[in-house]
Records
---
Amino acid sequence: MFSINWLSLVLPFSYVVVLGGALMSFSTIYRKRKAAESANLEPWFGPHLQRNIYLSLLHMEPEEGAEKSPKIPESVIRAALLRRAVEDIHRIIQIRTAKAACSSLLQRGSVGDDLWQRFSRAEKEMEEELRDVVMEANALAPGWGQTIFQSANEIAANTMLRKRLDEIQAQTESEKQWWEKRRAQIQKEFMSELDGGEKPVSKAPSAASEDEPVLVDQNTPSATPSAPKKKKGKK
Amino acid sequence: MSSDYSYDEEGTLWPFFVFTLSGLVTLPLSYVLYKGTRDPAASFPRIKSDYRPTDAEVVDATRKKDRRKDNKLWLVFLVLLGWSVMAYTMYLIYVTPTTIRSIWNPYDILGISESASEKDIKSIYKKLSRTLHPDKARPDASKNETIETLNDRYVEISKAYQALTDEEIRNNYIQYGHPDGKQSYSIAIALPKAMISDGNGKYVVLLYTLLFGVLLPYIVGTWWYGTLKRSKEGPLMESANRLFRQYEENIDVGGVITALSTGKEFEEALKGDKADAGLSKIESRILAPGETTPFAGGLSVKDKEKLEDIESGPRRKALALLWAYLGRVDLDDDALTKSKYEVAPIAHSLTKSFTAISLAYGNTAPILASYYASQHLIQAVPPKASPLLQLPHFTPAIAKAVEGDSRTVMTVQSFMDQPDAKRRSLAVGKGLLTEDQYKSAVTVAKQLPYFRVAKAFFKVAGERCIIPSSLVTLVVKGRFIPPGSEAVPAIDELELEDVDAAEDDLDAILGRKKKKQIGKDEAGKPVYEAEAPEAVFPPLAHAPYFARDYSPRWHVFLTDSKQGKMAVPPFTFTEFDAPIYGEDGVAPTFRMQTMKAQFAAPPQAGHYTFVMNVVCDCYVGFDTKMEVTLVVEEASKAAEMVGEDEISEPDEDSLAGIMNAAKGGPPPKKKRAADEEEDSEEEESGTEEEVEDTSDTNTDTEPEN
């Protein structure tokens, strides 16, 4: 039989042990770190205020000393649920528009992997949220689940439109003032022109200068025939 | 005969090995280092201006600091190490005596000439045996001789004699160069023997472990995590992620600036006590009423609200500094002024990421906003402010005075298009520019590269009309006409044409540069035109406040105005084919420039009206917007036209025919009668006959006849 020289085998065995140990510790540490990272990812959306309001209305604790919790009117709960659905619509629109952009950017390497992880998590959360809202709606009024998001969508669209409208209308005051001023100035110039004859020529440029940028911008393409004509001109 | 490997015992070989190896590494690194130390911007033309803003020193210092950052210390160290190793090994090679084994020559051993006859050889041999035979000769101690050496010498002598006289041994000598036959040879590894000698084994193993167990994983790891850390556009991945979250569908330039402040780069630039220091001071300054704007920083009320919503910290300070930079607000503090000029290049690098994100969404407004943000950052002009601020010495008050009471801002072009006397009367005066300042502003304005589009059209190379899904080329022809240029020559109509390369001109089709043949000399050799000039770069952006050298880019893209969506993603142009400025670098040449962009035509026939945007990312107000119409013809109609024109129709089984079928075109018509063809030829106009001529010469592409 062979007599095995154990001492000389110590080196190769220790090599295997060290190698295996190094690889294993690397993989466990790496995985733990990854898991911790993805657990600490910032949520895509901030806290869902409307949902919180709805849930706290639903689970109102009885006040101290009182036996029963205060009775919440049905209409208030419904309104809270509708508000929650409106907020969900806003979020779902964001997710829908962002999805294609996010995936194409991820493919190109323009955004990071963790953004995509956050995004897909938010997407899943939204699905759950929608299902929950439909169920709640059905519980409050049978059959409401089918229509709640339709009305929520209309409300959301309307608020957005309103916001834009308000923004535009907020400018009216300053615009009005400017035009008043401008009209007064032009009137003054006009009057002085009428009074003084040729004198106010030096004053005129300020009026002319306003129109000029527009003019120059338009004549930029010195020959701008429409494209079909160009096609004929070619070749 | 042994072929065992031995190590380099005399130390004659390994220096060569090490010298070559270190040379292979050091020489390219030295080149890289040399390239890095030179200023890459030095090769670019510049806009000549003597204008120095008040903080010019700070801007220059920041610019220099950035340039120095690129020079890596480790590279210098590595190159020095490499050169010293090379020098040392060179020294070793020079010093080590080379043991050249002399060629065994029987004539030399016997001490006779090679022309000696056999008789002479014999007599010499006899004479030598008489004196040098070990039995006869006595070892001479003074010559350091022993019995052995005498023996060896005599053996050599007799070998030499035999090699010259004995037939067999002579054959050996001729074949192998030695009377004993084939000599043993050895292969030596060019590594010093010391490496494998017993005591050093563990050091070698240690070195190997360090190299392959530590250094290699480290290098691979840094490379891999380095690529993960940065997005494709350059900014940190984390910044790109944050910018993605900041994206809004109707974002404006101010919104983009606010979004950019989320960048992680700012956190690194404004570390420690820099994160908050002086924030209240900056804010009070930028929010103070400005000369012409509600706030000195040039921000709108919405931007101000956004700024105030941010918790204090690096982000808020970065945003405040950005507004201070854009509004050219004096911060009255050296450290703050320095950071003010440092944040702008960072923000500009982030705009690239934001552009990529808005391109992925495809809405026109954010794309334009991100390009405009880049312009404003480079020129230090707040959003919605007058583009005249780009000119030296112009302040918001002066720009306001020039613009009068107008609501729309005046671009540099429209200011410069006015006659000199008129713009002088507007800009020069008390509280306005002095005569010298006005002159310096006008000289700069007259050098700014304003690209004026002359014509833009679509074409398909080698085709007469555009069929669905074909590869369309958008050709933009235009000239660089600096604002206020006088005596601009009229456009030569011929230059507006885009002539296709001939079908057999492979060089042009493949984009290779070719010398143009001018004619032939007497000997019949073709004479070529002088080498066409290399690509021409526009001058570096005139941006006295921007602490980087930046070469301007032009982006051309098509948008759908009805949907507010991008139709064709931007093509970026940084170089041009014709010189922009004359020899002196100031006078424009007004040469026609061509920009081409290829994209796939829509799959349905019809008239498509796009808005073509030509945006320069360096100068405010130099953008061009114009409508272009893409006419896509039905494939069958196009084929008919092609048939009439007698351009070779793709054969059913040819590659072009298959392509045509794949595009949904009808199968090529069956062979027509020859006389019918002749008829159609007669009807053709003169220009089309030229086309026919070319197709006739390429008869091999003709389907039949």
Note: The domain at 106-178 of chain B is CATH 1.10.287.110 (Helix Hairpins).
---
Amino acid sequence: MSQTARGPRHTALDALHRSLGATMTDFAGWDMPLRYGSERDEHNAVRTKAGLFDLSHMGEITVTGAEAADLLNHALVGNIGSVSVGRARYTMICQADGGILDDLIVYRLAETEYMVVANASNAQTVLDALTERAAGFDAEVRDDRDAYALIAVQGPESPGILTSVTDADLDGLKYYAGLPGTVAGVPALIARTGYTGEDGFELFVAPEHAEKLWQALTEAGAPAGLVPCGLSCRDTLRLEAGMPLYGNELTTSLTPFDAGLGRVVKFDKTWHVKDAGDFVGRAALAAAAERAESAPPRKLVGLVAEGRRVPRSGMSVVVAGEVVGTVTSGAPSPTLGKPIAMAYVDAAHAEPGTAGVAVDIRGTHEPYEVVALPFYKRQK
Amino acid sequence: MSNPQQLRYSKEHEWLSATEDGVATVGITEHAANALGDVVFVQLPAVGDTVTAGETCGELESTKSVSDLYSPVSGEVVEANQDVVDDPSLVNSAPFEGGWLFKVRVAEEPGDLLSADEYTEFSGS
């Protein structure tokens, strides 16, 4: 798991991926599986059966101490003080000007112990910001990126597959909850979270146990149709589910309100020991909330193609020849069978059903329909 | 994978069949198809179009990217594979067979096409 001066970092499962014939790609400084075979087949396996992912590039940061909750309340935009032991929260970390530094999942592992999971590309930024913001709090911020491998099992068959290799009470484990347990004889933090729009689990384990866990899940999942899945289908799965990707839908020049995710910002927080009162970005975010309410400049919308050409990040959204927005993510949707995209579009053209919207795909204005997000919602 | 011996290859990863009555078939190699991933959209030159060796004549879109299609030969397009337009996954499943792209009446062939063995060495697969 070490970083060499020249090459990208390798996860604990690197040799396994290569033996499976994976096409690898550089992602945020990590050499990660892009796909093993057809990314469309991998996508469909997660929608209908199950998929197995190596997500060890994600950045884990542990925060402990009597004022750990207060520090996180101060450093992040969510009300972390209200998260119960064993539960998780989707949240964001913002700059003082309200710009998004990263989107995160925070797990409360124990009374005074939290694990913050950051995107690989932002892990160092988040670590630095948390460390800096910890000044004055009785709390310790620890870089645990090398302490964990992360394996995800996602898809409707994932509860059955995981049940066959653990005694942990998965029925009692709700969405956005996490509990320590043993999986395939390996100690793991079992979390019911994911980035696919399906039911599923994320398993944080010591890197030296990653191969054993991967093999056990592969074996247990084979009868149910589980296949190894790369980052390519992870991207189309999250896009169909309308989930934002940092660097695409989320950037430092946008606030959570600009991204349509103002609900993650909590101005009233539950303080434990020390009431810091304020959190980083509060004033700017209060102004952003008002702006989003009264005069939103652009809105994040879904676009569905009428044709077959695929919109890509950075392409312009046009109405009657005028640029009215920008595509942030686009891909052929295996579930819908046509190209889809997320885009920031001027509020005047952002209502679902707005006519005359097109994407400029290499000079051709391809017609697109504006739809509400997400594109896909699983049946529960 | 193996690159069929009877075909010749361009460094842009297209293949060209032997000419029959002056007409040759063009496709992309399995190496190229694997590098692209699942092909979801194919834009081919139209029948009657003139294509020029080494110049773009269409595009192939996959999940992650779009790539230009280069013609390995100069001439006039006499047929485009409608099957592959309707089902672009043929490019992945049968790049040397049902996934062929277009047929061209050859006007001029470049001198630098590779043999199967040369292409295998060039592409590393």
Note: Chain B is about 20% helix and 35% strand.
